[in-house]
Amino acid sequence: MKDDSRWAIRDQLAGRRRRLEDALAAAGPEPALEDLLQEVDAALDRLGAGTYGRCEICHDPIEDELLLADPLARFCKGDLSDAQVRALQEDLELAARIQAGLLPKAEMQAGGWSVARLYHPLGAVSGDYCDLAPAADGTLFFAMGDVAGKGIAASMLMAHLQAMVRVLLEADTPLGLLLEKVSRTLCETTLPAHFATLACGRAHPSGEVEMANAGHMPPLVVRGGKVAEIAATGLPVGMFCQAKFSVSKVVLGPDDALLLYTDGYTESRDPAGAEFGRERLASLFALNTGLPPRDLLAALMHELDRFRAGTPVADDLSLMALRRAP
């Protein structure tokens, strides 16, 4: 397990210990709480002794995903009982259902825009962030991000990120200020290794699109048949507490389109180890811009599958396409 993950677990265990002590002080002696406090202390002792994360039966490393899901885990998956395996699977399934409930609709029509998204987690849950939120004034907020890390820990930070964004949207926060507030909150409430790239925008019925990009993969725009990248306007959110973000604008005409993606797409590899790459994606996007967003994303995935030729997927993957109605 990496050092930043150990620090995250140490902080998490210390927080649990404080809450358990508070509960015992308020409720008096409770055997169940006292037993749990002993387990937390034992885990902290293992961290101090350097034995944390080792299975007590086979002494092999316990899987990171298992430790992040249950910091008190003492056995690897191979040495879990059937009941423990079922409990872990139920927890993962519940986390996956909760995350699926946070996703926007797969297709949407709003303010003269047609939108579609694809969301393919590597495992049960994902650290990719994908959001769509129509506003009463006819504008459409859209966002795509990628949280550092994978698995349950990344999915928890992704949910935290979405909650912050939605609260700021309710206050009609301008895009640049929205990213500043998100970045400051993440910086102040999470560990230094916890950050996220985030590209977000507002699409207006007039065709104007405001964009702010905190270190995310550069969105692609096709105007008049020509494809271009929209560069990042700042560093990933959560890296620096006082980060500032500028906003760029682009105007799309009828049938023009915008594409957002995570690096799980462009960094996919073929059997020889070559990356798919941003240039190949840009060419495909330009060739298929005339398709409805849903069909455009399907065409992009079909070409990626053909390129990979059975190579295992190595990362979460998300795509979002917005197209002006003719």
Intertermini distance: 52 Å
CATH superfamily of the largest domain: PPM-type phosphatase domain
Task: Label the structural class.
Answer: alpha+beta
What is the share of helical residues? 40-55%
**In the residues, how many domains can be counted?**
2
**Major β-sheet annotation:** 6 strands, antiparallel
What is the arithmetic mean of pLDDT?
86
Q: In total, how many beta strands?
A: 11
Radius of gyration of CA atoms, rounded to a whole number: 22 Å
Uncertain segments are none
Widest sheet: strand ordering: 1-2-11-10-7-8
Strand content: 15-25%
Pick out its properties.
326 residues; alpha+beta; Four Helix Bundle (Hemerythrin (Met), subunit A); Phosphatase 2c, domain 1; five-stranded antiparallel β-sheet; 9 helices
Describe the structure.
By secondary structure, this protein is α+β, with helices and mostly antiparallel strands. The chain folds into two domains: 3-80, DksA, coiled-coil domain (Four Helix Bundle (Hemerythrin (Met), subunit A), Up-down Bundle), CATH 1.20.120.910; 105-324, 4-Layer Sandwich (Phosphatase 2c, domain 1). The protein is 42% helix and 21% strand. It is globular, with a radius of gyration of 22 Å.
Entry summary:
With 326 residues, the chain is α+β, with helices and mostly antiparallel strands. It has helices at residues 3-27, 31-49, 64-69, 82-102, 151-170, 175-189, 263-266, 278-288, 293-308, and strands at 107-110, 113-120, 128-134, 140-147, 196-203, 208-214, 220-223, 226-229, 248-251, 257-261, 317-324.
